[in-house]
Write a structure and sequence with these properties.
By secondary structure, the chain is of the alpha+beta class. The chain contains nine helices and five strands. It has a single domain, classed as NADH Oxidase, CATH 3.40.109.10. 22% of the residues are buried.
């Protein structure tokens, strides 16, 4: 792959939150996982386990577990700091669930912490470093999943609410996942029902620093706050977008 092709793929990779209900062939899902299993992992421990959920009743159950999270999240927005701008308004719980409920495939990525026993002893006696290696290994696989989905013309969404204790517990029980397995994140996968809007991005020159840095090269508190406010507004807009009309 040429660099320009890689950059184009990365730019196309977006979290699209509106899906068509059309089924996805099993071989396509397998292609996504085939890419992800080649992701780099700490000491090549490959801690990942992929749980593919395609049965409608199971997907509906998982989304129902997240209902209380959406309610709590809406309430918690009242506690945001004023400088962050407008609160994140859901147009209704039923609408919010449509972000991922219609997607025909869920892929839940779990990590097996027992693989940490294979790390060098100098790492195992540093719990914080061990946890970082474990988490970043899973993050690598998850990003590979999204890039693979994009290359196949599919839409994908991070559904991190799967990590909420209640959701995590009930989903494990529903799918008969061993208790020692650690959830990383869930991907909702389907054919896109919207075209992505232009992504709000920081300029490259303001985030790249060479060799010995001058503290003044980095953003001030005010500049970070201004970016956060704009980024929040952009994100709220992407969450509220309706499906494209034919």
């Amino acid at each position: 792959m040429e660099y320009d092709q890689l950059l184009d793929l990365v730019k196309k990779r977006r979290s699209l939150r509106r899906f068509k209900p059309d089924p996805i062939p099993d071989k396509v899902v397998q292609k996504i996982i085939e890419v992800a299993r080649w992701a780099p992992s700490g000491f090549n421990m490959q801690p990942w386990e992929y749980v593919v959920v395609t049965e409608t009743e199971l997907r509906d159950q998982i989304t129902s577990f997240m209902t209380s999270y959406w309610q709590q999240s809406q309430e918690m927005e009242k506690a945001r700091e004023d400088w962050q701008g407008a609160k994140w308004k859901l147009t209704g719980l039923k609408s919010a669930e449509q972000d991922y409920k219609i997607a025909p495939v869920f892929i839940i990525l779990y990590g097996d912490p027992r693989t940490q026993a294979g790390l060098p002893m100098g790492v195992r006696y540093m719990p914080h470093r061990t946890n970082i290696i474990h988490t970043t290994s899973l993050g690598n696989a998850f990003v590979y999943m999204h890039l693979a989905a994009t290359s196949l013309g599919l839409a994908s969404q991070w559904v991190s609410a799967i990590q909420v204790p209640h959701v995590n517990c009930m989903t494990k029980n529903l799918l008969n996942i061993p208790h020692h397995m650690e959830v990383f994140d869930m991907m909702a996968l389907g054919y896109p029902a919207i075209k992505p809007r232009e992504k709000y991005m920081r300029e490259r020159d303001e985030m790249v620093h060479f060799n010995v840095c001058d503290p003044d090269d980095f953003r001030t508190d005010e500049q970070v706050r201004a970016f956060v406010k704009k980024a929040r507004s952009w994100n709220m807009g992407t969450h509220s977008r309706k499906a494209d009309q034919d």
